[in-house]
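Continued from yesterday's entry.
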Amino acid sequence: MDHSVETIERAATDYVALTAGLVSAYVSNNRVQPSEIGALIDSMHTALTGLAQGAAAEALATQKPTPAQIRKSITADTLISFIDGKPYKTLKRHLTGNGTTIEEYRERYGLPRDYPSVAASYSESRSALAKSFGLGQQRRRAAPEAAEPAETAETVSERPKRAGRSRKATEPADA
C-alpha cells in the first residue's frame, strides 16, 4: 500500500519538476509579465497531466470492440464513433479530422469491410434529394432516344445490297 502511494507522489512530483523546468526555460527565452507566470505554470502542468491521461485514454481506445459493440454502434440515424463515442451521420469528416481514412479506421478497430461510413437514414435522404433534382436520370432518357434511330436504320434497307451494282441501275424505270 505504501509503495503505490509513493509511486503516485513521485509521479506528481515528476510533473511538478517537469513543469518547473519547462516554465523556467520558457521564461528565460521569452518576455512574460510577472502576473502571467502563475497562469503559465498552471496551463503547463495541466497540459503535461493531460498528455499522460490522453496516452492512457488512447491505449484504452485502441482496444478492439466486441461484435455486440459493433452492432450497437450502427443505428438507422447515426454511427457511433469508436474514437470519441459520439454519434455522427457520416464518419468521413470526423475521421479526416483525426487524420485517418475509413479503411484505416476499420483496420484499427477490427471492423468488417462492409462497415458503413454513412448512416442509413442519411443515405436514403440524400438519395431521395438527388432523385428529386433528376440526377442520375440522363442514361434512362438517352437510352430510348438512342434505340429509336437504330430501329429506323434497320427498316430503311429491307432488300439486301448487291455487290458491284448500284441500286438505280437495277431498278426498273417508271416511265
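--- second protein ---
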Amino acid sequence: MAVKIRLKRFGKIRAPFYRVVVADSRTKRDGRVIEEIGKYHPTENPSLIDIDSERAQYWLGVGAQPTEQVAALLKLTGDWGKFTGEGPTESQVKAPEGKKAFVADEAKKPVLKPKAEKPAEAPAAEAPAEAESTETESAAADEAEKTES
C-alpha cells in the first residue's frame, strides 16, 4: 500500500484551511485517512503551521511520501531536515504577534456627548400627583357602583 502525507481541505470558498494527514494514495482528497498529524491555515497572517514532529518523523521513516505542498511545510518546520540530515533542522515558522493594546488619541475630541441634565423637576413632580388623582377617582367610581347594586 502506497502511503502519502498530504493535505485535507476544509473551509468555505476562498477561505480554506487544511489538515496534514497520512492516507492511502488511492483514497479521495478529503476521504478516509490513517492519521492526522497537523494543521495548516494559509489565510492567517502569518500562516499557522502546526505539525506533530514526532509523528511526521515516524511516517517518513516507514516510507510515507509527502506531496510537494507538505514537503514545503516540512522544510519550514525543520522536520524534513531532521529526516534527510541536510538543511536546517530548526523551525522557521513565524509565531503570530499578539494584539496591540488600544490607546485613545487624546488630541481628538470625544465623540460621545454628555447627557443633558433635567431642566425642571416640576413636570416630574406633577406626574405622580396626576397618577394619585386618577387612582382616587377610580376608587370613588368603584364605591359608587357598589352602592348602586
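The first helix runs from residue 53 to 61. The beta strands are 3-12, 15-24, 35-41, 48-51, 65-66. Will compare against the first tomorrow.
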